[in-house]
Amino acid sequence: MSSPQPVRGTHDLLPEDFARHAHVQAVAREMAARFGYAEMATPIFEFTEIFARTMGETSDVVSKEMYSFESRGGEGMTLRPEYTAGICRAFISNGLQQNVPFKAFATGPMFRYERPQKGRQRQFHQIDIECIGAAEAKADIEVIAVGSAILGALGVLKSCTLEINTLGDTESRQAYRAALVEYFSDHKNNLSEDSRDRLDRNPLRILDSKDKGDRVIVEKVPLFNDYLNAFSTDFFAEVLEGLERLGIGYHLNRRLVRGLDYYTHTAFEFVTDALGAQGAVIAGGRYDGLIETLGGKPTPGIGWAGGIERLAMLAGDAPEAIRPVAVIPVGEAAEAVAEKLAHDLRLDGQVIEMAFKGNVGKRMKRANKLNAAAAILIGEDELARGVCTLRDLDKGEQSEVPLENIAAALKALG
RNA sequence: GCGAACGUAGCUCAGUUGGUUAGAGCGCCUGACUGUGACUCAGGAGGUCGGGGGUUCGAGACCCCUCGUUCGCCCCA
A40 in a domain, yes or no? Predict the structure, then answer.
């Protein structure tokens, strides 16, 4: 085809798809508000530093997936691959430390240069929750609870599982990491190529390897539990207890590790097996060192991101939109009156469809196609008597209504 | 980035071992129905078979390249 195509990994959101996305966003926005998370937005691009520093130079996202470019002024810019870094930057930029806990909801497009697949695109969209400035386990519990509630409101909670793990505080994590590197280095020759690479970049990842040979080695790996200090253990236990208190089911997954450097303590994913290889629909965790990494005062934080495309696929069709009422003039003489009537009804709050041209048959057809609930017909007969014909398109019944009563009649129709 | 499959009208797909002007259903447009939709009937528009090159007397079918999609890996939302 020689017709123009969208850039690889990007997609047009036609009205039907857009409605599904909007539904996910609206449900999330409403639920987030109930928990006290107000919507905000940050720019779609930031200085490259913001992402590189927070996510870690060796992470996949930073090392090979960023959409980076140079501004006219020669500064390195990057289209945001995630929301967390931008919101944390905004937290610092705007001096919000006096507002803690700062609880935010955000949504918008993200960009990652990846091989597209179903549920994975180069421009995709996320909903995002962040709670900054709260070190308490209660924050972890609440943040996960918002996610669970949103999945519930979307009707997809039953097809999702909450996988959860702790990465411990920095001290525990460093100790464990060192132990892992030591253990795996001894088995380096038997590790898969991918895992040998992980040994340098993110040794925790090896625990999650799907390679059979790796699995054998992983079986005798040192246990994270032995390296978690008391604080980390207690903290995680408190989080789990809290979830149980709220009736939020979870699956303890000791091999769950996240790919970004900034995570500490609680790490979690709501996963589904309904979307092929792209199982995570909401994922996040605690990032107690991130704000400091960006140059702010040490400030704890926790949050998650959810993929709108994935959630929309799970949730299916959006609720039916408000059905319009079609205003149909019959003949030239009624055109002007119909136009004015349509305008007045719209100002009165009605959803009115009025075609630009066509005879009654065509306009009725169009009204039907647009799923109109009713049609208002005005011709010379009606005009002379100051009435119009109101036709219920579902029942196929119609009656005459005085023009001055039509607004009320429509409201009565529902 | 690696491996594999696929790519024919707006959509879902047929196209026999390569053989004349490439088909169907749905949708769209027009008419029967010059003041009434969802049903029916009759017409019509719409494709350089993703793109480029090659093999052949002849390619939608075979070969190569390229773009795109899908699946798996990697990784992630």
Answer: yes
